[in-house]
Amino acid sequence: MAFEMKLSAKNHSNTYVVVILPITSKMKRGQRRLAKTNMSRHGK
Known about the structure:
about 0% strand, single chain, 1 helix, mainly alpha
């Protein structure tokens, strides 16, 4: 049981790195892009 739990925990961390990290980085990039466009709009 304990061994299986460790394995599942490892898999969860792997899925977190593979799935959630790219999504968060994309969201951060998107927010930065939005901020830039807002700044340029205010500049006009």
